[in-house]
Specification:
The protein is an all-alpha fold. The chain is 70% helix and 0% strand. It has 5 helices and no strands.
Length: 70
């Protein structure tokens, strides 16, 4: 998974992100802007995940999208 790809395609991804993690608000998505570290931090804060859990969630999410695989 290439983190730069996610940043470059954030506009496309953000809708899917919001569907999967509905507790993330539009403001949260605006703050994240496709940045991996920001995304992991928001998952930790909103869902009470450990860092490793949030990273695994992101990896699975990206694996499910053939356009995002690197």
């Amino acid at each position: 998974m290439n983190k730069d790809i996610a940043e470059g395609k954030w506009a496309q991804l953000s809708g899917r992100v919001k569907q999967k993690w509905s507790e993330l608000t539009d403001d949260d998505l605006g703050e994240i802007q496709g940045r991996y570290e920001a995304f992991v931090g928001k998952l930790q804060a909103k869902y009470g995940m450990k860092r490793e859990e949030a990273e695994q969630e992101w990896a699975r999410f990206m694996e499910d999208d053939p356009d995002m695989r690197a």
